[in-house]
Design goal:
Blueprint: H1 4-17, H2 27-35, E1 56-57, E2 63-64, H3 67-73, E3 86-90, H4 96-105, E4 115-120, H5 123-135, E5 142-146, E6 159-164, H6 173-177, E7 179-190, E8 195-202, E9 208-216
Helix pairs in contact: 2-4
Bound molecules: S-adenosylmethionine.
Length: 226
């Protein structure tokens, strides 16, 4: 295990390079990134590479997303999570992105903390995410569920944010139905040779608008809407 000082240096170094991805890092994003120990969300053999900005293999042929991708998802031009909001994450994987959301909607000590429901379809990974979330101290703010996330989670809907971390041909209709007024949904949509990160927003009257945030590369969404 690396000493704390070295980990902090690596974290600050990776943050400083995010400008090359054109990401505006707010103070809240920086705090969230510094607070979540990514080394607790990667496989033991990759702990030394936890602060290299790349996807890393986890179980079942899946990956923990690259750091810049996680930061894009929580940036002001994407989901822009606010304290007190409820988030549905599809594709919990390692649980890392869920922990970052937790730091933004439910930072320690706030009066009105939000909550994250993170769904994972692969049982082995749902267990992995649960263990990582527990070890890192986020169980009060993050609930990991094992099911097909394409169906959303009607029991706790609507959600201020729905964040999909796997690529789909279309926006699963149940997810669009579960966006709250003034809510945001982000999802990679398959195109011919790449995927486009699409942001759907729903205004206070229930009108939807759509924005393309650029090309990305994600593993496929499986299940009913895969
Ligand atoms: C790129 S990984 C997600 C990385 C994750 N956000 C993290 O922080 O580690 C995509 C995940 O989506 C999961 N997935 C794919 N289709 C799914 C579905 N229909 N419902 C829930 N999870 C799904 C995969 O099993 C995989 O773990």
């Amino acid at each position: 295990m690396k000493p704390d000082g070295e980990l902090l240096r690596e974290k600050l170094n990776v943050l400083s390079k995010l400008r090359f991805h054109n990401i505006k890092i707010t103070e809240r994003m920086k705090k969230a990134f510094l607070n979540v120990p990514r080394e607790e969300f990667v496989l033991p053999k990759y702990k030394n590479r936890a602060y290299i900005d790349t996807p890393l293999p986890i179980q079942a042929g899946q990956t923990i997303s690259a750091i810049h991708m996680v930061m894009i998802y929580v940036s002001p031009s994407c989901t822009d999570p606010q304290v007190g909001e409820t988030v549905l994450e599809i594709g919990a994987g390692s649980g890392y992105n869920a922990a970052i959301f937790a730091e933004m909607v439910a930072p320690e000590g706030v009066e009105n903390p939000g909550h994250i429901y993170a769904i994972e379809i692969i049982p082995e990974l749902a267990e992995f995410a649960k263990d990582n979330i527990e070890r890192s101290g986020y169980t009060d703010r993050v609930t990991i569920l094992e099911s097909d996330g394409g169906n959303g989670y009607p029991e706790k809907s609507p959600f201020n944010i729905i964040s999909v971390a796997a690529a789909s041909k279309l926006i699963p209709p149940p997810l669009q139905e579960q966006i709250a007024f003034n809510g945001r949904l982000v999802i990679p949509i398959n195109k011919m040779l790449y995927q486009e990160l699409v942001l759907i927003t729903k205004d206070e009257k229930g009108n939807f608008s759509k924005k393309n945030l650029g090309g990305v590369a994600f593993v496929p969404l499986t299940g009913k809407y895969g």
